[in-house]
Amino acid sequence: MERLNQTKKHSGNNPVFGDRGTDTFTFDVPANEAFERAEIEIVASNRGGARISERPATLDSGGGKRVGVNWWFDGGQPWRGNGLIEYTVKAFTISMSAATRRVVRLMQGLTDATCGVYLKRVGGDVLVASNENAKFEPASTIKALHLYHAFREIERGAATLNEMVTLPGSDFCVANQDNDPYTRETMRETLRRMMRSSDNSATEAIRRRFGKASLRTTAATLGMSHTELKHNLGCGWAPEMGGHNWTTLVDLGRLFENVAAGNPFPNNQAAFNDTIQNWVFPEWIDIVDQEARRLEAEQPGRLSAAEIQTFKNGMKNYFKPGGYEGPDQDGGGRSFWGVYTSLAGLLILPARRNNVIEERKFCHGVFVSNGTTPANCYTARVTGTTEIVREEIRNALKTFQ
Question: DSSP secondary structure string, 29-65?
């Protein structure tokens, strides 16, 4: 949204070298928005110039935000003639909740990469979202699609958990499939290796078993319209391998929301839950303790140790992380070291209503893309995954008071 649009003009007769000044413009950023950028456009100039010298911090909100502009005349040689500088300065904001702003600022404080976050209540509102529709390289996170497709086929009887699947050797990216060394595992074990160990040979076995075209069809059925499967997992994004795979946090959210609300595997839900990684991050347990202490300070004696433990016991998390790094090229053919790390999943929090514990379900996802320092990218991803659910943990924990 455009929150500032003002034009300013300075002129003078026979200006001398060094004539200059500063203009300051103020504007407000509503609480549900965040400052994005400021721009300056030179409308007219004769021996004059202007540039932005001051702007709010990215993602700031609140009243009295300032944009400063330095302007000047350069009389040149000879020092005669009229001086003129006329410019328009603009400031733009983006819609962003306080929770989103908090998480994104934490992540961007750790890395120069592009960061994305997404948290949506299953069947309900989007609670945290930034770059949620931006395409990114998901690496192994996209294996959640392979898992969904396999269970879809199992559910309809076109495959079984006990059938034997051929797993290629570790050199499957370059080996001839006809002569590729292999092992044999059950479908159940192959899927577990793909999701729990992120085994690329197991993933390749699932791709060969069902076909990439079928995976793409399933993605389309789920509404994952921005998901593109190009290279085979574990083979990298080099052009000869097909290039980058792409998806968005919204697309991944559609997959996990379908698992949570669509009941796609009524006969195999327990097996699905047992196959995918399904543990609660210790950082989330720490948040429970932190928020419990804050609630206790606000209302002493309202939240017992037993209630806190009941809350922790009721938390569930089904997820898939992924990460790649290596030499890459941008759209202009310039080389850089690409770092891509992401995680998406389904969080379930317990909540008490009328003395009955119910489940609140949330699709969650985070990505960090194209940072210059790998360690910082991974730290930012962990930070985003940790903090994205803080407000909802607190809200659910309050129901136990």
Answer: E-TTEEEEEEEEEEEEEESEEEEEEE-PPTT--EEEE
